[in-house]
Every structure is written in C-alpha cells, then in structure tokens.
C-alpha cells in the first residue's frame, strides 16, 4: 500500500476489467490534492475523523491463489472490485478494496498461492500510517524471545512499513511477469492463426490450379477426339471412291 492512490481521469480504479474480474470507478471531489504522477495524496470525505485514512488494498493473492479481507474493525468499505489471473480469470485472484480506516482501525488480510511469504497479516492505522504485522509469526518470536531473554521485542513501525512495501513490489513484479507471459501466449496464438489462414489460402490456390489443369486436359482430349473423327471420315470417303 503505497503513499497516495493511483487515479485515472479523477477516479480511483478498484479492481480491473475483463473476464472473471470486476472494475469499480470511484470519482473523487475536485478539492483533492494530487501528485505530479496523478496519484491522489489527500481528499476531504464527508464525516471523516482526524487521522482517518483512505486506503486501497490491492489483490495480494499469490500465483493461482486468493486474497481477501476479514475481521475489519473501525473500517468502512467504500468499494470492492476483483482482480484475476489468466485470460479467463480462472487461475486465481482476489478482491481489491477501497476502505476508510479510522485511527486505530484494523483489518486482516488472508492470502494463498505460490510465492506467498505471509498467509495472514494485520494492518492498523497508527498515527495516520498503515502498519503491518504478522500476529502469528510475531507471537512465536515473542514467545522465543521471552523464553531466552525474559522480554518481548518491540516491532519497529518503519521496518513493518518497509515489509509492506517489499510485499507490494513483489506482487507488482509477479503480476508484470504474468502479464508478459500472457502477452507472449497471445502473440503465439496470433501466429498460429495467421499460419492456419495462409495454409487454407495455399490449399485453395492448389485446388484452383488442379481445376485449371483438369480443364486443360479435358480440352486437349476433346480436340484429339475431334481430330480422330475427322480423319476417320476422310478414310471412309477414300474407300467409297475406290469402290472397296
């Protein structure tokens, strides 16, 4: 979850279009603050609280996996879209959310699939910033630390934010690789279709050539028959003249 929210034509894109997918466009008010690259940095929302965040939670599913949000506390779901993997959208994917998260608000992301480093994570609005933690992993670390040192480690919010950024970068990289693979697949399919069309055209030309050759042979045979018939008549005329 990067700082700022990507927008297109003044609208937040939640989800994506296509088969097995669902795109929701949420228009933003004219008073929003935008970065040079068009990302929404801040916006006034009716009834908002001080320190409240507008957060886009992307599809975090692994390859052929899923992603969803559960156990929301202090959160309001503004919109929900859907992302998917594969042309038909049946290789995996999950929901994408636009949430209003109050100060101290939390939600849990559960994800599955290949190349997934964490399966469950808790996100919390801490002083106007989303902080990630892995409760199960941190509980195990705390238990081990307590057994060794009699104290539990303190989770550094900066490190937690860096982990979130790294997970997002990995997700973007995996999605780019999948998109590139699908583009190559579509290119190969287009080449196969063009090859099949050329093959059909070749067959049609060969059939036309055979028809032309058959017609030429038929004309030659007809001319030969006519010539033979003419010669026969001349022979019979000569015999009649000799009275044979």
Describe this protein's structure.
With 244 residues, the chain is of the alpha+beta class. It has one domain. It is 41% helix and 27% strand. It has 2 helices and 10 strands. The strands form 3 sheets. Strands 6, 7, 8, 9 and 10 form a 5-stranded antiparallel sheet that branches. It has a 3-stranded antiparallel sheet with strand order 1-2-3, with no helix packed on it. A two-stranded antiparallel sheet has the order 4-5. Strand 9 (120-126) and strand 10 (129-133) form a beta hairpin. The longest helix is centred in the C-terminal third of the chain and has 86 residues, at 157-242.
Main sheet record: 5 strands, antiparallel
List low-confidence stretches: 149-155
Number of helices: 2
Molecular shape: rod-shaped
Any idea how many domains?
1
Q: State the end-to-end distance.
A: 115 Å
Q: Rg, please?
A: 37 Å
Give the mean pLDDT.
Answer: 76
Structural class: alpha+beta
Number of strands: 10
Listing every helix as H and every strand as E from the N terminus to the C terminus, the arrangement reads EEEEEEEEEEHH
Roughly what fraction of the amino acids lie in strands? 25-35%
Give the helix proportion (percent range): 40-55%
């Amino acid at each position: 979850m990067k700082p700022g929210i990507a927008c297109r034509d003044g609208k937040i894109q939640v989800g994506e279009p296509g088969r097995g997918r669902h795109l929701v466009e949420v228009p933003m008010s004219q008073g929003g603050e935008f970065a040079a690259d068009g990302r929404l940095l801040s916006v006034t929302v009716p009834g908002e609280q001080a320190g409240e965040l507008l957060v886009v939670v992307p599809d975090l599913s692994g390859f052929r996996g899923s992603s969803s949000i559960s156990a929301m506390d202090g959160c309001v779901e503004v919109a929900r879209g859907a992302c998917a993997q594969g042309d038909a959208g049946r290789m995996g994917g999950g929901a994408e959310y636009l949430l209003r998260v109050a100060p101290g608000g939390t939600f849990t992301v559960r994800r599955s699939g290949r190349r997934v480093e964490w399966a469950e994570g808790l996100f919390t609005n801490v002083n106007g910033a989303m902080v990630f933690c892995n409760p199960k992993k941190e509980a195990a670390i705390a238990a081990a630390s307590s057994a060794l040192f009699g104290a539990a480690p303190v989770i550094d919010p900066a490190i937690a934010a860096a982990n979130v950024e790294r997970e997002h970068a990995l997700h973007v990289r995996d999605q780019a690789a999948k998109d590139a693979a699908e583009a190559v697949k579509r290119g190969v399919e287009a080449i196969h279709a063009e090859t099949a069309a050329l093959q059909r055209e070749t067959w049609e030309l060969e059939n036309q050539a055979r028809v032309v050759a058959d017609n030429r042979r038929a004309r030659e045979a007809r001319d030969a028959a006519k010539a033979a018939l003419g010669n026969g008549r001349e022979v019979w005329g000569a015999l009649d003249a000799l009275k044979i």
